[in-house]
Specification:
By secondary structure, the protein is an alpha/beta fold. The chain has one domain (12-262): Vaccinia Virus protein VP39 (Rossmann fold, 3-Layer(aba) Sandwich). Helix content is 35%, strand content 15%. It contains 11 helices and 8 strands. The protein has helices at 18-25, 33-45, 49-69, 88-95, 108-112, 114-118, 134-139, 141-144, 170-180, 200-205, 218-222; strands at residues 74-78, 100-105, 124-128, 154-158, 186-192, 229-230, 236-237, 256-262. Strands 1, 2, 3, 4, 5, 6, 7 and 8 form an 8-stranded mixed beta sheet that branches. Helix 1 (18-25) packs across helix 2 and helix 3 packs parallel to helix 4. The two termini are 31 Å apart. The chain binds S-adenosylmethionine. Residues 18-19, 22, 56-57, 60, 78-81, 105-107, 110, 130-132, 158-160, 163, 211 line the site of S-adenosylmethionine. The site of S-adenosylmethionine has 22 residues, from helix 1 and helix 3.
Length: 264
């Protein structure tokens, strides 16, 4: 198990942070007044957002269960967020014991809650790192301690790429990570979209936050899967990616796309 501690005074409370806004929208307690105000503004601008984050989290669960069910035994979760029950390791280890997981987030607050992420588990690491520097993440010793890149990996980029601007060159970022993955690896990806409604007001909530919100169209999100083979049903609105039960929302209501793909 690998872990670093951060002190409270390293946590930036001067502006809303995506991890804490998301935690608030999911009903979590690890957030501050200005995160809650941003979350309320977001819900005012995009009333389906709470259902959206729950649907995104449910997609994450179904996708992780699927890829671990195919035999993958290591997960690289970039943009982990604050611990939300069930955590990725709880989901994965329900399917197979011994799944190793490296959690990466660029917000040190996630590291502060590492105890909750790591709870009693070997083969797990928490790393403060930035998706915008993918080569450094692949080489990071705490990632390497957990992930063997010669074996298939499930790479999770769930609800994180929309925090990268075009100037961050997110397609290059994903391609760099893809090229580090062994054949038989998987990409689990979800991304916010404005395809179904005008979301400029929702985006504006992030203007003062620690990262901007960059909505993308279905075609733009699909391009992140270049070099992978998308599994059925392809890139879908998250409630409709292999639902366990009839989705509680109609098509076009939830502004998140999700997909799972395999590296041949
Ligand atoms: C909306 S949360 C998603 C959490 C989790 N993946 C899920 O879908 O339930 C996005 C997370 O991505 C993190 N994040 C944003 N930009 C990042 C970056 N450039 N590098 C690493 N993490 C980032 C945020 O700190 C936040 O914890």
């Amino acid at each position: 198990m690998t872990r670093k501690s951060f002190h409270r005074d390293e946590i930036d409370t001067s502006k809303p942070h995506p991890a804490r806004i998301y935690d608030y929208l999911l009903g979590g307690k690890n957030n501050y007044e200005l995160d809650r105000a941003a979350g309320d503004r977001l819900a005012g601008a995009a009333p389906e957002v709470r259902a959206g984050v729950r649907a995104n989290r449910a997609f994450l669960g179904r996708a992780v269960r699927h890829v671990v069910g195919t035999g993958v035994r290591q997960i690289l979760d970039i943009g982990t967020g604050l611990p939300t029950s069930p955590t990725v390791q709880e989901i994965a280890r329900e399917v197979a014991t011994g799944v190793r997981i490296a959690y990466v987030d660029n917000d040190p607050i996630v590291n502060t809650y590492a105890d909750a992420l790591l709870a009693g588990s070997d083969g797990t690491g928490v790393v403060v790192g930035d998706l915008r520097d993918p080569a450094a993440l692949v080489e990071h010793p705490d990632v390497r301690r957990v992930v063997d890149f010669d074996e298939p990996v499930a790479l999770l980029l769930v609800a994180v790429l929309h925090f990268l601007t075009e100037a961050d060159d997110p397609r290059r970022v994903v391609a760099t990570l893809r090229d580090a993955l062994a054949p038989g690896s998987f990409l689990v990806l979800s991304h916010a979209t404005g395809d179904f409604a005008d979301r400029r007001e929702a985006q504006a909530v992030y203007d003062n936050a620690s990262a901007s919100l960059n909505l993308r169209t279905k075609a733009e999100v699909e391009r992140f899967f270049d070099g992978f083979e998308l599994l059925e049903p392809g890139l879908s609105e998250v409630p409709f990616w292999r639902p366990d039960a009839p989705p509680p929302t109609a098509p076009g209501e939830i502004g998140f796309y999700g997909g799972v793909a395999r590296r041949p």
